[in-house]
């Protein structure tokens, strides 16, 4: 009888180890489907809110908004960053006072905010920021740290749960030591969770995910090669993207937030989702394609246990009347988003 008892003991020990490992993984991925961020990227307005704007958003099932204060960089190759500290020439909603008022109004409406500072580069994309010397790199990171801690202090004061430390700064990510120092500085002043919003072309190259709480992805993955794709084509495209994301999740054992995802209301929206509306002049208008893209996300990605949330680009305080735009407001995609957030897809 000793041998069966010994085997049972080994089995129980193995089961205990397996349970602890899974509990550890669950602690790392410490959210459940009902707690996922159901978010939109909130567009800061030029004037104070009237009070109804965020209530309207809540009716679509959203639980979160990302607020985006800006810093400005005149030249992507020069280490000079300016923000509210240097000038008040910005919209009300991008100033600390506007961020605070929007945060308060949102919480009163049942919406939490995350803070996602961006750099706006004159006639360029933030992914083109690249210094030309070691001295300039040192200056740039020093200024960026000051810019970021300005908002980290605000986030700490107002108990904002998540702070994004950077967005699409693709040509800076090879400076791993500099980024780890940025993270150390921010953590010394802010006790919430940190994410970096990596472009879909860079997230799998980043080495410092272990120092953050979330893997952030600007999820503008191309889902089609032609206009007016079928729903099945979009589903197949996600079936190729998802394993790539899961390899990074497996390596770093961190949950993912789609810090941005969005599609214009055009027939070619799934071909190059990142293309701005003003560059789509002449494109065929199609609410149907935009709605299909939203449906493909909810059908294929939303229920993945590694996905901690999503933020759809973008949502205005008032409905925009422009023909081509990313926003789902007033379009078929808004109903798809509502159904997805409410668990009806």
TrEMBL record:
InterPro entries: GH, GH113
Record's signal peptide: 1-24
Keyword terms, alphabetized: Signal
This protein's record includes keyword Signal: yes
Superkingdom of the organism of origin: Bacteria
Pfam families reported for this sequence: GH113
Entry keyword annotation includes Secreted: no
Designated name of the protein: Uncharacterized protein
Source organism of the structure: Mariniradius saccharolyticus AK6
């Amino acid at each position: 009888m000793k041998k069966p008892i010994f085997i049972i003991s080994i089995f129980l020990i193995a089961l205990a180890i397996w349970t602890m490992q899974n509990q550890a993984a669950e602690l790392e991925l410490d959210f459940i489907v009902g707690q996922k961020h159901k978010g939109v990227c909130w567009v800061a307005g030029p004037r104070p809110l009237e009070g109804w704007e965020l209530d309207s958003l809540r009716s679509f099932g959203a639980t979160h908004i990302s607020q985006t204060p800006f810093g400005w960089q005149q030249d992507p190759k020069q280490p000079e960053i300016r923000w509210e500290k240097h000038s008040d020439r910005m919209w009300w909603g991008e100033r600390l006072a506007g961020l605070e008022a929007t945060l308060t109004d949102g919480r009163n409406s049942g919406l939490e905010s995350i803070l996602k500072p961006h750099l706006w580069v004159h006639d360029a994309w933030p992914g083109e920021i690249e210094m030309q010397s070691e001295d300039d790199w040192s200056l740039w990171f020093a200024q960026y740290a000051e810019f970021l801690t300005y908002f980290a202090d605000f986030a700490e004061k107002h108990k904002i749960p998540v702070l994004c430390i950077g967005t699409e700064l693709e040509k800076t990510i090879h400076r791993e030591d500099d980024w780890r120092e940025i993270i150390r500085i921010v953590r010394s002043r802010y006790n919430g969770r940190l994410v970096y919003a990596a472009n879909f072309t860079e997230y799998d190259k980043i080495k410092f995910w272990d120092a953050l709480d979330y893997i952030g992805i600007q999820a503008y993955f191309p889902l089609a090669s032609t206009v007016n794709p079928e729903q099945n084509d979009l589903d197949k495209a996600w079936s190729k993207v998802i394993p790539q994301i899961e390899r990074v999740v497996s390596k770093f054992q961190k949950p993912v937030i789609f810090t941005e995802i969005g599609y214009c209301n055009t027939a070619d929206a799934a071909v190059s989702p990142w293309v701005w509306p003003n560059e789509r002049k002449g494109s065929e208008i199609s609410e149907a394609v935009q709605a299909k893209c939203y449906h493909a996300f909810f059908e294929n990605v939303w229920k993945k246990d590694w996905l901690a949330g999503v933020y759809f680009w973008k949502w205005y305080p008032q409905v925009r009347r422009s023909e081509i735009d990313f926003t789902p407001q007033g379009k078929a995609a808004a109903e798809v988003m509502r159904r997805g957030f409410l668990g009806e897809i």
